[in-house]
Amino acid sequence: MGLLDIGVLSRRSGVPASTLRYYEELGLIRPRARHGLRRQYGEDTQTQLALIALGKAAGFSLAQIKGMFGQDGLPELPRPALHERADALERQIRRLAALRDTLRHVAECPAPSHMQCPRFRQLLRIAQRETVQPEPVLR
Fold first, then answer.
1. Do residues 44 and 90 share a domain?
2. How far apart are CA 136 and CA 139, in angstroms?
3. Which segments constitute the HTH merR-type domain (predicted)?
4. Is residue 83 part of a domain?
5. Residue 71 lies in a domain
6. CA pair distance 104, 93, nearest whole angstrom
């Protein structure tokens, strides 16, 4: 397996070199060697970066993502935490769908005032219920 200079890895992955150094500082990735002062990474680091990006997109913190990598750098994905995050995303999707529907209704409602529209007031009550419930903390 070949080594990739930090600049090459940055170009291939789309992750800035400064972010790669930060991920290294956090222990998310590790260089395999150095060529002068430049870090060199294994080609498998590209897969790790893709997993980090996926984890970030799913809403996991970098600390949580770090905990999902074993000592060998391979993912050890905790299924219960993934289920919890998927459930949290589902709740977020429902809230966003209600918000979308509210905005569309507000934009198209023929009532003289939106506060006079029964549907709009119903959507406000639903939105309020959804925002009052706290999100579970993922560890």
1. no
2. 10
3. 3-71
4. yes
5. no
6. 16
- How many domains in the chain? 2
61-68 long-range contacts, CB within 8 A, separation 24+ = 62/23, 62/26, 62/28, 63/26, 64/138, 64/139, 65/28, 66/26, 66/27, 66/28
139 residues of the chain, pLDDT tens digit each: 689 999 999 999 999 999 999 999 999 999 988 888 788 999 889 999 999 999 999 989 999 998 888 777 777 878 898 899 999 999 999 988 888 887 888 888 888 887 888 878 887 787 777 665 555 555 4
This prediction's pTM: 0.69
Using DSSP, state whether 35 is helix, strand or coil.
strand
Q: DSSP assignment, residue 28?
A: S
Q: Are residue 56 and residue 87 in the same domain, yes or no?
A: no
Give 15: exposed, middle or buried? Use CB within 10 Å, 0-12, 13-18, 19+: buried
Last residue of a domain, one of 20, 37, 66: 66
Quick one: 7 and 44 in the same domain? yes
Predicted confidence at residue 53, as pLDDT, reads 95
Q: How far is CA 48 from the centre of its chain?
A: 15
pLDDT reported for residue 78: 83
> Would you tell me how many other CB atoms lie within 10 Å of the CB of residue 43?
13
